[in-house]
């Protein structure tokens, strides 16, 4: 209100100055016209208004002297004529001064108006910025007491998340053909697609059983960014389907590199690669837990740890706690979820320790190279976690394809996994797990540097026999 009153007062001052400058200019122009008319009237005009001036009898009047050598007449102005010129010159100076003053007044007014407009624009911009920093009502629907957690996420990443058209998604997947399906999760089938910009994506599609507050939840997920979390690229929603578009990771989930279709080891990864994958996944979960408010994965498992072309681990399927429908919950309860914390009775009780339990099961699969429930498990209740917790010999749960020196560090990972699947009050935090895996990674670095040196020596020696 104070700003509006100041602007009104300033506009009144400007109008007054404009009126004064207009009056000055008008008086100056009238003086110039009067003076010009008097000059153009000449002697005849003088007879009508004033007594004629007799220039012949006045001293200093007009004299025409034609010299014998110079026939050019000379003109000597009289005293009255010089006075008239002085008066005309004074009026001309006054007119110039008045015009200059009016111009200066106009310049000052323009400057004042410009400054006022700049301040108004700055005020509007600050108001809009402060308003945009407050989350919208749609985003608030997906959070609990989120007003105190406005700065927990990074809204700038939402700018890179696009609302895609169904036509582009159909073209990317061949109209969602069966040949484009690369997996299935709790959100629905996962399709591999190629967007118009030439980028490969993974498209998750849910049909008919739609979730409420889809757009607010998508916006919340889009604001989460970390090198070890799969990036959300876009989304789409209509009356009968919802789609999520993620970056595509060429090496799939880590389970494809650990065991075969029967859940038995295939020995494709050395321990250094497994430790790197475990460390990356733990950093992804630790980042989710560090957010304010924290986000719990609630569905962490081996198939949700994906690998890019450089075998960098990234956690997928996070932030779906509120996107899970009753149909999903009914389906999940009909089959055994070996990654689910057995101490949980309701999904509302989920906490950081629940994700830690799931990560412990993941570590057991990573070290053993076996699926948690594989071909060797005859009974449904029998699983890798149950066997490892009730055994005194840890070596039999370590992947047999690993070397002897690698098994030393593998035992440390196995012990860490068993602590994670222990009772809730004894489980470590994800931050502690990250620190322990970093120590293991540093300890095995020297092992692989020695192996590389030995390979180099053998290669050099073999060149002598070529």
Topology:
Elements: H1 2-49, H2 79-132, H3 137-140, E1 162-163, H4 166-173, E2 181-185, E3 188-194, E4 200-207, H5 214-222, E5 232-237, E6 241-247, H6 271-290, E7 305-307, E8 313-315, H7 326-333, H8 352-368, H9 384-389, H10 404-420, H11 430-462
Parallel strand pairs: 1-5
Antiparallel strand pairs: 2-3, 3-4, 4-6, 5-6, 7-8
Helix pairs in contact: 1-2, 6-8, 6-11, 8-10, 10-11
Overall description:
With 466 residues, this protein is an alpha+beta fold. The protein has three domains: 2-62 and 75-125; 154-248, Phosphorylase Kinase, domain 1, CATH 3.30.200; 252-449, Transferase(Phosphotransferase) domain 1 (Transferase(Phosphotransferase), domain 1). Helices cover 48% and strands 9% of the residues. It has eleven helices and eight strands. It has helices spanning 2-49, 79-132, 137-140, 166-173, 214-222, 271-290, 326-333, 352-368, 384-389, 404-420, 430-462, and strands spanning 162-163, 181-185, 188-194, 200-207, 232-237, 241-247, 305-307, 313-315. It has a six-stranded mixed β-sheet. Strands 7-8 form a two-stranded antiparallel sheet. The longest helix has 54 residues, at 79-132.
List keywords for this structure.
466 residues, alpha+beta, Phosphorylase Kinase, domain 1, Transferase(Phosphotransferase), domain 1, six-stranded mixed beta sheet, two-stranded antiparallel sheet, 11 helices, 8 strands, 48% helix, disordered C terminus
